[in-house]
Amino acid sequence: MASAILYFAFPEQYPVYDYHVIWSLGWPEPKTYNSVTLWDKYRAKITEISQATALTIRMVEKAMWVYGKRYQTNNWSQRPDHELAEQ
Hints:
Elements (H helix, E strand, L loop, with lengths): L1 H8 L9 H6 L11 H18 L3 H15 L16
Helix pairs in contact: 3-4
């Protein structure tokens, strides 16, 4: 919830923190989501992708959320078998 508040206050600086995006990044399932270290890594990675693609932080985060929402299963380590998943 705090990330959503930060996003609405500073949309150019903070993405919304979501487990679907973490999965879409290909990262292992975290033991806890309340880690400042994980939040910093997440924010930095979304920002890096945003800068590399010239998309807004929100566009990157939302696209990754949609991808995760569509393809994520109950088995965290299972990844879809298609071309996009390999990139």
